[in-house]
TrEMBL record:
Taxonomic superkingdom: Archaea
Upper classification of the organism: Archaea, Methanobacteriati, Methanobacteriota, Stenosarchaea group, Halobacteria
InterPro entries cross-referenced by the UniProt entry: PQQ_b-propeller_rpt, PQQ_rpt_dom, Quinoprotein_ADH-like_sf, WD40/YVTN_repeat-like_dom_sf
Biased composition (Basic and acidic residues): 178-202
Protein name: Pyrrolo-quinoline quinone repeat domain-containing protein
Signal peptide, first to last residue: none
Pfam families assigned to the protein according to its UniProt record, in alphabetical order: PQQ_2 (PF13360)
Region (Disordered): 168-237
Pyrrolo-quinoline quinone repeat domain sequence ranges: 74-162
Residue ranges crossing the lipid bilayer per the database entry: none
Length: 269
């Protein structure tokens, strides 16, 4: 495999020092050959290659605590230093939702209509939450709540195992931005967590449901059902509070047609 320049969608990870030992600095990327590659960020040489041997890879890898998480038909946990499989969690269909790590749990959606919570150490299922259609969006965790959008036109807020956990790891965007109808799923996702109310919350969904899990099998009860609300309408109908491309705060330039941070188009003239 030859490497020339940067690969779009790859993740740069610098694992720094731990216990006085300098760990590897490398770039991980994926392609449709169904393999995961670890590439040295300085030299472009391949450090390792992982072949899941089951389905193609359609998700972005997430790196946390020395482990690379990626989805095929299974959720794979790969040792970031060696490229060897740590564990494998099987779902009933393909995975296009990128993994999200919070606390000691990794969350991932599947085309089998479920959102799974899996123990990062053992690879065992902690719970599964069932929706009416495939879950393709990538979950985000903030203050012990898992947020995810389903193809059943619903954004779900599901109680996680701890009220103190937030999303972490090296994946940059944990929310889905600007799909289908051009509205944003959630507020700033550049810092890997939902911290503010968005101008509009959607993800191709029309309502938001908040759930408390009754038992680990994923039986859940709706505690709230509300339409998304606008954070601010004082600047006019054509204004936006956050850039749908990079998540930047646009309150100081509500009427701009393009984002001053990333150059993305904010509205049609």
């Amino acid at each position: 495999m030859g490497i020339r320049g940067e690969r779009p969608g790859s993740v740069l990870a610098d694992s720094g020092k731990r216990n006085g030992v300098r760990r590897q600095r490398f770039r991980r990327g994926i392609d449709y050959s169904g393999k995961v590659y670890a590439i040295d960020a300085q030299t472009g040489t391949q450090r390792w290659r992982f072949d899941p041997e089951a389905g193609s890879i359609r998700t972005s890898p997430t790196v946390a605590d020395g482990t690379v998480y990626v989805g095929t038909t299974n959720l794979e946990a790969i040792d970031a230093a060696t490229g060897r499989r740590r564990w494998q969690f099987e779902t009933a269909d393909s995975i296009r939702s990128s993994p999200t790590v919070a606390g000691s749990t990794v969350y991932i959606g599947s085309h089998d209509t479920r959102l799974y919570a899996v123990d990062t150490e053992t690879g065992r299922q902690r719970w599964a939450f069932e929706t009416d259609d495939p879950v393709q969006s990538s979950p985000t965790v903030k203050d012990g709540t898992v947020y995810v959008g389903g193809q059943d036109a619903t954004v779900y807020a599901i109680a996680a195992e701890s009220p103190d956990v937030d999303s972490r790891g090296s994946r940059v965007l944990l929310g889905t931005l600007g799909h289908h109808d051009g509205r944003t799923t959630a507020s700033k996702t550049v810092d890997k967590r939902v911290s503010d109310t968005p101008d509009r919350a959607d993800a191709g969904a029309s309502n938001t449901n908040v759930f408390d899990r009754a038992e680990p099998a994923g039986q859940s009860t709706a505690t709230a059902n509300r339409e998304p609300t606008a954070a601010s309408s004082s600047a006019g109908a054509d204004s936006v509070s956050f850039c749908p491309h990079c998540g930047a705060d646009m309150t100081d330039a509500p009427g701009d047609a393009y984002c001053p941070h990333c150059g993305g188009q904010l509205r049609d003239d």
